[in-house]
Known about the structure:
The protein is of the alpha/beta class. It folds into two domains: 2-112 and 322-384, 3-Layer(aba) Sandwich (Rossmann fold), CATH 3.40.50; 146-286, Glutathione S-transferase Yfyf (Class Pi), Chain A, domain 2, CATH 1.20.1050.90. It is 41% helix and 23% strand. The longest helix is centred in the middle third of the chain and has 44 residues, at 174-217. The protein starts with a strand and ends with a strand.
Amino acid sequence: MRVTHLSLTDFRNYQQADVPFSPGSNLIVGRNGQGKTNLVEALGYLSTLGSHRVSNDKAMIRAGLDAAIIRAKLEYNGREILAEVQLNRTGQNRGQVNRSVIRMRDLPRYFSSVLFAPEDLALVRGDPSVRRRFLDQLLILRTPRLAGVLADYDRVLKQRNTLLKSARASGARGTQLNTLDIWDERLVALGAEIIDERAELVRLLGPPLKAAYHAVAGEDHGPALISSLSILGATDDDADAGDSRVSTGSTTGSTADVFRTALEGLRRKELERGLTLAGPHRDDLVFMLNALPAKGYASHGESWSFALALKLASAELLRRDSASGDPVLILDDVFAELDQSRRRRLAEAVAGFEQVLITAAVLEDVPESLAAHTVHIEAGTVIDG
């Protein structure tokens, strides 16, 4: 898969931008603050329905305007596709494929990309929610139907939390508890599927993660991933106790049965707090290096290498599974953080991908082998391409 052309209207600092892209490596160069990252942010949005920089879509709409448009021409398996999204300041965003309106959550079916940026250091050092989002975005890219499962789980979770709050305020009564039992079953059915899908994804990521870390760092620090499940007693509150967390391999019986039992045991505490205390919305993923949790123990360089290796492993997994070919690999301002040897190793690691998009503030930071097609950006204007 590759992007042949990107068009932006009123997106970030671009009133209008048109950028052609070539197969292989594409380098986007510009001083800080000129808009180079905005280009790859737009492409990342098409495949994940989110930004790697902000949580609010409205921040991507040009100041003072009501809407922004991202439009990309894509090519894979001899097919050409025009994917579009309109971000609206008020009302729902709108997606189109080949000029036909589609549901927004279906947009990632048509474009697969993996983006690594400095913000991804939060995968190692940030809150559990960052790691959950990483897993879920990768799940959707591999199996688009899971977008619906995740959306349904969130909806059931909100309904259940509303009922818990109501029961706490009025004192739990028989009818409310019976209704809660009904919501429990729906939460368990959806949540168990998410937990199992995440567990399989973590298992599959293991081997390519080890290979990618060695390729980037030039050393074998034993990188590993361990799932931490709230239905087994681990919660967000334990985020810094990675070595005491429980892996999915410790479960006995079906995930649904374990989840159901956990909810039964937590019923009194949930009614007191008005909050659902177990489920995939409270799980975490523990990163290990040298048999220690990376969070709290890994150096800056090791954390950086782990996060980058995780994204490279994701791209490798997608290229194995996808009928549409390689995902587009996006490296946003990565090379400035690396020494010469790691720059060379990273260039070798990404050389085999069908298309790689790279941003850099300084042309000399990027190995010459990756600068075959260069686009210069200045003050929201594409100088050449």
